[in-house]
Amino acid sequence: MLASLPPLTFTRSGAFRFALVALVVAFHVFAPRLATVKQRSWILTTISSAVMSIASLPLAWDYFAAYGDIVSVQRPSMWTYCASRFFQAYLI
Predict the structure, then answer these.
(1) b vs e for 1-33, b when ≥16 Cβ sit within 10 Å of the residue's Cβ?
(2) For the chain, how big is the Rg over CA atoms in Å?
(3) Sequential pLDDT tens for the chain (92 residues)
(4) For the stretch 35-63, what's the b/e string if a residue is b when 16 or more beta carbons lie within 10 angstroms of its beta carbon?
(5) Where are the alpha helices (DSSP H) in 31-77?
(6) For the chain, which end, N or C, has fewer CB atoms within 10 Å of the first or last residue's CB respectively?
(7) Is the pTM of this model over 0.85?
(8) Torsion angle of the four alpha carbons 5, 45, 40, 91, in this order, in degrees rounded to the nearest 10
(9) Distances (CA, A) of 26 to 13, 62, 80
């Protein structure tokens, strides 16, 4: 658990709010440039998968550097906290 972080609901999280606003703005910027509804439906999915892939790189590095020992992967940090809040914003 994130003992060093205060317990927050997702609506009070600055990281969540920032991610939600960023996703909404990105959608409104890119949506007019795409012709079909099917193309527009991929905007948020593409952004989210790119952000989450990049956010997982430090964890993947720890995992592979420890030769697959999951115990050696870093403890939850502000980085993982913000990444999880971003993913929650995408889900909403």
Answers:
(1) eeeeeeeeeeeebebbeebbeebeeeeeebeee
(2) 16
(3) 445 655 555 556 788 889 999 999 999 999 999 999 999 989 999 999 999 999 988 888 888 988 888 887 777 788 888 888 888 888 88
(4) eeeeeeeebbeebbeebeeebeeeeeeeb
(5) 37-40, 42-65
(6) N
(7) no
(8) -50
(9) 20, 31, 22
